[in-house]
């Protein structure tokens, strides 16, 4: 099952970014989480049973109303996310 980590930088904290990502995730067959990092970036980890679904979700995040706040997104493949149910915001 494909899984990715995405590190978003730009004006991505204090603007509702994590909540927008969680809302967007509800429209896709993805599981994972999103959280703020101490250095001002936002980290997202997500997985799906379908490559296309995961790619569509990541594109929807980029194309969302907050996409203009993203200066850079670094995507890398990671090992499968084990034990993750649904899509959550990690505090």
List the helices and strands and how they pair.
Blueprint: E1 3-10, H1 17-25, E2 31-36, E3 42-47, H2 51-62, E4 70-77, E5 87-90
Parallel strand pairs: 2-5
Antiparallel strand pairs: 1-3, 1-4, 2-3
What does this structure look like?
The chain starts with a strand and ends with a strand. The model has no long low-confidence stretch (mean pLDDT 95). The protein is of the alpha+beta class and 91 residues long. A hairpin with a 5-residue loop joins strand 2 and strand 3. The protein has two helices and five strands; from the N terminus they run βαββαββ.
How many strands appear in the DSSP assignment?
Answer: 5
CATH first level: Alpha Beta
Q: Roughly what fraction of the amino acids lie in strands?
A: 35-45%
Q: Helix count, per DSSP?
A: 2
The biggest beta sheet is recorded as: 5 strands, mixed
* Largest beta sheet: strand ordering: 4-1-3-2-5
Structural class comes to alpha+beta
The radius of gyration over CA amounts to 12 Å
CATH architecture: 2-Layer Sandwich
Choose one word for the global shape: globular
